[in-house]
Design goal:
single chain, 430 residues, alpha+beta, BirA Bifunctional Protein, domain 2, Rossmann fold, 16 strands, elongated
């Protein structure tokens, strides 16, 4: 098939019902996150490569394998593979008084060059938050509760929180060294990727999906046993605050998360419907240095494609993807009626009503277009109606018809449309 008519592999056009579903998801997200005191931030799709190398870490799979990087004018740029680093770049350019306690959220596309598969595309979309507050188990628990509230506001159920810690910054090197020592006698049993990870990013061995690697990991001490009491106490405090808020969780000692900037709290939220488990979202606390600024915060990201697929699987997508019918289709017989309808259509749209008309044709062809459009009503005028200052309003579902004075058209359509309009989504958790 021609490359001129198809999107790039791993990227998709989003159309029709899917667009309507996504708009509802985005509007719901904005409502939930605003109630938590977050403001929207829109960062560029393209950044300097160094923004992500320094933030995410040059040993991560994202930086080593997945970023779209290119050179222009002697400088290296990339398409953003995730949202946090761009927000931190923005924050680093502001003063402390503008960033301390800042709460931002973002919605938009990200790009990773990886093998396309179900729920994972090369252009994908994330909804995420960044809360730039100092390390606090209270704040971490609040942000995790926000993520659960958002997923539930979309109607998702059967969710499970997997909670763990990366430990304080001072624990990272000793814990990694202890883990390498524990893995050393089993190195030959590990897959090629995990043998490489031992030297580069040893924690990723813990979440390898290969069975021989999983068997080795199952016999290792918990990562928290290599950490300080401070780190263990911090995790316990987060868990305690979640319990106070009624947010259920489970401690998962093998949860790692793949980015180097995490410290202390990390988590994933998985769907558990139909006995299977799939990761829907995750987040954690982090510390990032960009230039002279060191920024710490806590945040999360949610893959919108995965949420849309989960809504589809749960039978919840159709209701929010349904098309909203036009209020009115204007039918005009003769040039004078057509011109009068053009002026009326502009007035009705200014009043908030949705309407269209055919540029011409017989009454039969115009009514055929009205029925095909799915409009609720047709407004029909010809020379006689223009002379009398009236119009015929036809209900296209029932066939009922009434005659209106021209000056009463707008008020009558407004009343009918208000009565027929679906209830707007509130974004409240369910």
């Amino acid at each position: 098939m021609s490359t001129l008519t198809q999107p790039i592999q791993g990227m998709s056009d989003i159309t029709g019902a899917e667009v309507r579903l996504w708009r509802w998801m985005e509007e719901t997200a904005r409502g939930v996150m605003t109630r938590y005191g977050f403001e929207e931030l829109r960062t560029p799709l393209m950044e300097h490569e160094s923004v992500f190398v320094r933030s995410i870490g040059d040993t991560t799979d994202v930086v080593q394998k997945e970023m779209y990087v290119f050179e222009k004018g002697g400088r290296r740029y990339c398409l953003r593979p995730e949202g946090t680093a761009g927000v931190m770049r923005h924050a680093a350019g502001l003063g402390p008084q503008e960033t301390d306690g800042a709460r931002w959220f973002y919605l938009g596309p990200m790009f990773r060059c990886e093998r396309p598969q179900a729920g994972r595309k090369r252009q994908f979309h994330q909804c995420g938050v960044e809360c730039l507050e100092a390390p606090s188990p209270v704040v971490d628990a609040e942000i995790l509760a926000l993520q659960m509230d958002l997923l539930q506001a979309w109607g998702l159920k059967n969710l499970a929180i997997h909670l763990n810690t990366r430990g304080a910054a001072a624990d990272h090197a000793p814990a990694a060294a202890a883990l390498r020592a524990a893995l050393a006698p089993h190195e030959a049993e590990l897959c090629e990727d995990c043998r490489r990870r031992i030297g580069q990013n040893v924690l990723r061995v813990l979440d390898c999906k290969n069975e021989p690697c999983k068997a080795v990991v199952a016999g290792l001490p918990a990562l928290t046993s290599f950490m300080s009491q401070e780190s263990r106490d911090y995790l316990d405090a987060v868990a305690s605050h979640l319990s106070v808020m009624g947010v259920p969780y489970m401690i998962d000692p093998l949860l790692v998360r793949g980015l180097d900037y995490y410290e202390h709290t990390i988590w994933e939220i998985v769907g558990t419907a139909a006995g299977s488990q799939s990761a829907l979202a995750g987040g954690g606390r982090y510390r990032i240095r960009l230039g002279e600024r060191e920024l710490c915060g806590v945040g999360f990201a949610i893959g919108m494609e995965r949420v849309a697929a989960a809504l589809e699987e749960a039978g919840l997508a159709a209701a929010h993807g349904a098309a909203v019918p036009l209020d009115l289709w204007l039918v005009g017989l003769g040039d004078a009626a057509r011109e009068a309808n053009l002026a009326l259509m502009r007035s009705l749209r200014a009043a908030g009503l949705s309407c269209r008309m055919a540029p011409g044709g017989s009454m039969k062809s115009q009514m055929r277009a009205a029925n095909k459009s799915g409009a609720r009503f047709a407004l029909i005028r010809g020379e006689d109606e223009l002379a009398a200052g009236t119009a015929n309003l036809k209900n296209l579902a029932t066939g009922e018809q009434e005659t209106l004075k021209t000056e009463a058209i707008e008020q009558r359509i407004q009343a009918i449309s208000a009565a027929a309009a679906p209830t707007a989504a509130s974004g409240e958790p369910t």
